[in-house]
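Supplementary Methods S3. Complex input for the guanosine-5'-diphosphate-bound model.
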Amino acid sequence: MSKYTKEIEKRRTFAIISHPDAGKTTLTEKFLLYGGAINLAGSVKGKATARHAVSDWMEIEKERGISVTSSVLQFHYDGYCINILDTPGHQDFSEDTYRTLMAADSAVMVIDGSKGVEAQTRKLFKVCVMRHIPIFTFINKMDRDANDTFDLLDEIEKELGIATCPINWPIGSGKKFRGVFDRNTRKILTFSDTQKGTKEGVIEEIDIDDPHADEVMDPEQKEQLMEEIELLDGASAEFSQEEVSKGQLTPVFFGSALTNFGVETFLEHFLKMTTSPLPRTADCGPIDPMSDDFSAFVFKIQANMNKAHRDRIAFMRICSGKFDATREVYHVQGDKKMRLLQPQQMMAESRHVVDEAYAGDIIGVFDPGIFSIGDTICAPGKKFAFEGIPTFAPEHFARVRQIDTMKRKQFVKGINQIAQEGAIQIFQEFNTGMEEIIVGVVGVLQFDVLKYRLENEYNVDIRLEPLPYEHIRWIANKEAVKVDKIVGTSDMKRVTDLKGNPLLLFINAWSVGMVEDRNPDLVLTEFSK
Ligand code: GDP
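Predicted complex, serialized as structure tokens:
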């Protein structure tokens, strides 16, 4: 028990992931509405009126209509203090999503009921399952014709390899959507498509055995519902909080974010089924969130969020204790005591300076270029490092050519900064210095982001020449091998990463095995920590 326990226990920190257009922004808005953080949903964003979401900061996001980076929002509801981490809606940015998930204690997955699990987000969702945190599924847009409910669940189970447990069950969809049946209370929440924006929808709660229930749905629908429920009770996984906590079972909810239906009941169940911040693993063992001592790690760095300032912000997840802006902290990797500069929290487009924050919260601090992703910040006198955030192996490579060679300095600065943020990875040819830069990405859209940002933020035009490499290996025992002595294959290329680690690039998968065979002392890995 610490003096901060009460505050920390109120915290719920989750990431929200979805396919573009599945309704993540709308759902987030409705959450904020319940929290009283905004008055009327839609004031945050309305695509029709060309206004943009709270979380869609960067120009490129506005142009493309996809989220490239993640942002953070905090609001209060029913005694809880909730932090929502928004994530990019395209699998090409799944690495960014993974980093954000590292800062979250659970995830909410929004699925469009008429589309199911979509190809472009399959990887994104899988990344979520990889993190082994509780995942909650909200199947949205039930006011539109949706796929068969069993098919939707089947798809989630097959595609993502996670068991599903519907907490409620939809009665019809589209024009025939009547509401949801709560399997636990056996009550129907009735849907009425009236309020588009205000929080007081007229939702009735009727017991399934109440004759009034028959007025809500026609006999055919009721029969179908009863059949489906029977089938479900026999076939579906039983609810198990333990499995939910381990990320092996996802509770599923149905609703319609736009008409504000099913959102509050989702939020209420969700808050009960998730936990307050849990201990985090560091090199000295688990760090108790309730500890009196402050600790945090950097999970995201973002430059130029505000064009007027050209600033760079490091986002930290507080893992234990309380952050107090008047106190010094210790940056472990930099081995330096310091005051965190301009600590702030985000609420929609406005940021405000914070004086204090608790385990579970996310703060952004001004970064003069000293922080890296994964860095640990703790109380002076302590020294430990939280588990690192893995770097994904890039799957696409290109050589970067600068069009105007006079702008070398800006180019080098820009590409390095963008790489430090983790938006791309850069490599240099082994032993040749900065002359040739190779960019590696997990998803090809990251190339577009790089080009766009170099033009817009650094005023540098580049040309990207695709390279045929598809496989990358870090050298795990780099101290023990001489890189230029490695017996390679004709398609192998030696490069170094931003931190100076040697790596090998290959065009063919079988070359990797061949190089391992030819160099028995060489240990290759697919991930770098
Ligand atoms: P995001 O890309 O996942 O953030 O999706 P948005 O929240 O921006 O929603 C995409 C579009 O779907 C918008 O036009 C929304 O108004 C619409 N939408 C969101 N939720 C619902 C819903 O429950 N029903 C219907 N019919 N439309 C919805």
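The pocket of guanosine-5'-diphosphate is lined by residues 18, 20-26, 47, 89, 140-141, 143-144, 256-258 (CB under 6 Å). The CA atoms of residues 444 and 492 lie 22 Å apart.
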